[in-house]
Design a protein that fits this description.
α5 runs parallel beside α7 and α15 packs antiparallel against α17. By secondary structure, the chain is an all-alpha fold. The protein is globular, with a radius of gyration of 29 Å.
Length: 480
């Protein structure tokens, strides 16, 4: 049985309740109104012109502080003014002094509708972010010089990053919206829907600080990881920045998590690392060597029987997208994915009604295939190649795909109707036997992901239920 949330996450839950109770206003309603009147008249033109000088920089700094600090207002907004409602004319009484036609008392005019209660500022934080981002996107819009445009936007974004740190010990909702704001900062603004936008690589620094901070709840760290993933995929980050991000992602995977959402996000982000990681220089050694130990980490997570199935399956999916250094044994990785698929098949047959099986098996399929045309366009451009782009030219990889396909198709067609009842049918024993025979007959001769990396160790046995890491809830998808 799954570990109850009240048992598995007591520390995290207590931390979340404490942070939701924090009230630390950095601005009052009166200050907000005063700043709004003073700044709104000037900031639009300053931002569009994109010129930095002694007159514009103080106004930009003041605008940034106002936009961020107003997130912390705790006072309730003033109630809306009651609108005057014209009363309906009362018809004259009937012949007997009663209502119209003398058939009863005259109907009273309806009372004016009561105004809606004011919306607390804290509930408006996403709206505040949207307004702020519209202004940020306009920065240097009318500036023709590309260097000047980028320099201006960098000044604005650096100011937001620096000032946002003042809010990371505030109420949980304030912290969350700050992280969501940082995630969406672009050094080059894109077109409609953000198409063509380039993420600002420097957001990685505060996002990694949030991940390292033991006082921050995992609900903040997950969007922080998503921001790092965006930096890896769509920014001008250099190799050193990507190296630092990958190291932090792997470090966080070694920490305890209260639920599977955080490690799943970490593994997904590791799948976006498209640079071979460089081993740190050792005194007296030759030049640093490129070693794909982020690939090793993803393989280790997939093989770890003490991790939730969803996290292990996400690692399999990441292994299909991760850039594989030419020294990486892609045949070994493909073989381990088939082994993992077999383990899931056995577990599924023992407990087929868990909510996560379809996602898990689908992710083993996505280890070999792109999700859609957009993703395929991206993964096919990754150099060095990944497992998906090696599919057509490497027989060991395409053969492994053929082994995971039958259980995937079986799971995705569940639940099925048996004797008039919807149920999740077990995977046929014949499929399991074929898969097991293939893994036994096609085991690679080398058990290292790449030269210089440690040998793959036999997976540790599953921990006792009382000490097992947090697992998925026991929701069911069967008998619907």
């Amino acid at each position: 049985p799954a570990v109850p949330a009240a048992v598995a996450r007591p520390t995290a839950d207590a931390k979340l309740r404490a942070q939701m109770a924090i009230d630390k206003p950095l601005m009052t309603q009166a200050e907000d109104k005063s700043a709004s009147r003073k700044i709104k008249l000037k900031i639009g033109k300053i931002l569009r012109n994109g010129v930095l000088n002694v007159q514009t920089t103080p106004m930009i700094d003041e605008w940034i502080e106002w936009r961020l600090y107003r997130m912390t207002i705790t006072e309730l907004p003033a109630p809306p003014r009651r609108k005057s409602v014209r009363r309906a004319k009362v018809p004259p009484p009937g012949p007997m002094g009663m209502g119209p036609g003398g058939m009863g008392p005259a109907a009273a005019a309806p009372p004016p509708p009561a105004p809606l209660p004011p919306i607390p500022f804290r509930r408006q934080l996403p709206k505040f972010n949207d307004l702020f981002l519209v202004e940020i996107k306009s920065a240097a819009k009318d500036q023709n010089g590309q260097l000047q445009k980028k320099a201006f936007r960098k000044y604005v974004l650096d100011g937001i990053i620096a000032k946002s740190r003042d809010l990371l010990d505030n109420n949980f909702y304030v912290r969350l919206n700050v992280v969501m704001l940082l995630n969406r900062l672009d050094i080059l603004a894109g077109g409609f829907g953000g198409k063509g936008s380039v993420a600002y690589a420097e957001i990685a620094v505060p996002l990694m600080d949030i991940m390292r901070d033991a006082n921050q709840h995992e609900a903040l760290k997950i969007p922080a990881v998503q921001g790092l993933r965006r930096v890896l995929l769509a920014s001008e980050a250099d190799r050193d920045q990507k190296y630092a991000i990958a190291i932090e992602l792997m470090s966080q995977l070694d920490q305890k998590a209260s639920m599977y959402w955080y490690p799943r996000a970490l593994v997904e982000a590791i799948g976006c690392v498209d640079e071979p990681l460089i081993q740190q220089q050792v005194a007296g050694a030759p030049a640093p060597q490129q070693k794909p130990f982020h690939v090793q980490k993803a393989v280790d997570v997939m093989r770890d029987k003490n991790r939730p199935w969803i996290v292990r399956a996400e690692a399999a999916k990441a292994l299909g997208r991760i850039s594989l250094h030419p020294t990486v044994r892609s045949d070994l990785i493909a073989h381990e994915i088939v082994v993992f698929s077999g383990e899931m098949s056995v577990a599924y047959n023992k407990n087929p009604n868990q909510f996560y099986w379809q996602e898990c098996f689908l992710n083993t399929y996505l280890a070999f295939k792109a999700l859609d045309a957009t993703e395929r366009s991206r993964v096919m451009q990754v150099k060095p190649a990944n497992l998906i782009s090696k599919f057509a030219g490497q027989k060991a990889v395409s053969d492994a795909y053929q082994q995971i396909l039958p259980p995937v198709l079986h799971i995705l067609n569940q639940p099925t109707v048996i004797n008039g009842v919807k149920t999740n049918a077990p995977i046929p024993a014949a499929i399991l036997q074929v898969q097991q025979t293939w893994t036994n007959d096609n085991k690679p001769s080398v058990d290292r992901v790449a030269p210089g990396l440690p040998q793959l160790q036999a997976p540790k046995p599953m921990a006792a239920k009382g000490g097992a890491p947090a697992v998925q809830p026991t929701a069911s998808i069967g008998n619907k």
